[in-house]
Amino acid sequence: MVLFNIPPIKHSRLQVQTDLNALTEVLQWYEQFNQPPLSYDLWWQSKVALDEGFTNAVLHAHLHLPPTTPIEIEVIVFADYLEMRIFDQGQPFNLAEKLQTLHHQNLNPLEKEGGRGLIFMQHLCDELDYLRLSNQQNCLVMRKKINN
Predict the structure, then answer these.
(1) What are the angstrom distances between the C-alpha of 93 and each of 63, 75, 90?
(2) Where are any strands of DSSP class E within 6-132?
(3) Is the pLDDT reported for residue 112 higher than 60?
């Protein structure tokens, strides 16, 4: 079996401190992806997912860490999908289990404060995963298919 490594169309990384005020910088940085092959709708939906993911990293993953703790964000655009990764240094958690619990509660995400961002991310992305890496970091991976 031969695997082909398809190079990305666009790839960028950003590192910011654990500070909700850095969300402005994150969203301004993400503006560079508002171009083909991403449609405006796909870009906007992924921007909302990125906003929610970053906010969760600050408020939950890094809750007990110093504000100087870095959060790294990586966005990669391929011909057929967009991948966004948010790296945090907090304690890992089971994303699938948390989402299942939230869905069993059958609550309206617009009425419930806690967990709302996870539900939004799940609905806005085609794939959502949270991985513990060997370097003791976590990585929230969000993928969205590009329909050309």
Answers:
(1) 14, 22, 9
(2) 10-17, 70-77, 81-88, 127-132
(3) no
